[in-house]
Design goal:
alpha/beta, Rossmann fold, 7-stranded parallel sheet, 5-stranded parallel sheet, 16 strands
């Protein structure tokens, strides 16, 4: 998963598992979000590829958030990051020198934790994640294959410490005893400073390809995170919400399925250095607008 064409083709291969949406064929290029400010009451921003790349803020992103607030628009960040809890998400944007309030952020981890069933859950997570926000009993899954057999379900939060060998332990355990799998980050990849990281959604779809069917994906493009954003914007019609994202099959597809307007941000994310319009045509996913940087 190290180039745009491969990533795009994999998203297309799992398209039947994603929400569907209707698109018109016309997309308009804009030079600034101010060009469309009259079309929106709220702007929703993806994080990776739009506000930051890895641990680095994208130039101008913090100022744009402040400008839109001053113009009377509501701001939300909708991130598929599940490697840290909600407070950690807020702290990350503070570290990036972006002023964001806690209630302005929704993450796929927030959505995944909203409806947990009781039991002992095996957690696939980063070593530094203390799991303090998980509302059920947990066991970290690493290299001991017997641990995989002891849990009642699996919660996939991060790929930071995951490996091919650990994925094999998971598959063997599921074949012996199928159990629920929660993928708390539906992304296949995320843009980093030096390429793309493979994310939990990638491994979740590998399991689905093998016929495991008790899998729940959370995060864009799946509806729960969009519903949480809408609930935080009472009185704002869906067509007055504008999603700004860098990925067609997550940000744009999921938002369009809710009736939101969309902006494909092209300069720093998935399509950096590529002709995004060719991929839009191939996927038949057409954002309302395109923009280099927010």
């Amino acid at each position: 998963m190290d180039n745009v064409a491969t990533i795009f083709d994999r998203y297309e291969a799992v398209r039947h598992r994603l929400p569907s949406a209707e698109f018109s064929s016309g997309t308009t290029a804009i030079s600034s979000l101010h060009d469309i400010a009259d079309h929106a009451d709220a702007f929703v921003f993806d994080a990776y590829g739009v506000l930051n790349v890895g641990e680095s803020a994208i130039p101008g992103a913090s100022g744009r958030l402040a400008d839109l607030r001053r113009s009377g628009h509501q701001i939300r960040i909708l991130s598929n990051a599940a490697s840290y809890n909600h407070d950690g998400a807020v702290a990350k944007f503070q570290k990036l020198a972006m002023h964001v309030e806690s209630d302005e952020i929704v993450t796929s981890r927030d959505a995944a934790l909203a409806g947990f069933e009781a039991g002992l859950w095996g957690c696939i997570t980063a070593p530094q994640d203390d799991l303090s926000d998980i509302p059920v009993a947990t066991r970290r899954l690493v290299d001991n294959p017997s641990c995989y057999d002891l849990v009642d379900g699996f919660l996939f939060l991060s790929t930071e410490a995951w490996s091919v060998g650990r994925q094999a332990h998971l598959e063997r355990s599921l074949k012996k005893n199928p159990r629920p799998i929660i993928i708390a980050n539906a992304d296949l990849v995320a843009p980093r400073e030096h390429g793309f990281s493979v994310e939990p959604g990638y491994f979740g779809h590998l399991l689905a390809d093998q016929g495991f069917d008790d899998i729940q994906f959370y995060g864009k493009p799946f509806p729960e995170v969009y519903e949480m954003i809408e609930a935080s914007l009472p009185g704002v019609p869906p067509d007055r919400i504008v999603m700004c994202g860098d990925t067609l099959h997550t940000d744009i597809l999921g938002a369009a399925a809710r009736g939101w307007k969309t902006v494909l941000v092209e300069m720093d994310g998935l399509f950096a250095g590529h002709d995004a319009s060719a991929y839009c045509s191939k996927a038949r996913i057409h954002p309302t607008w395109t923009l280099g940087r927010i």
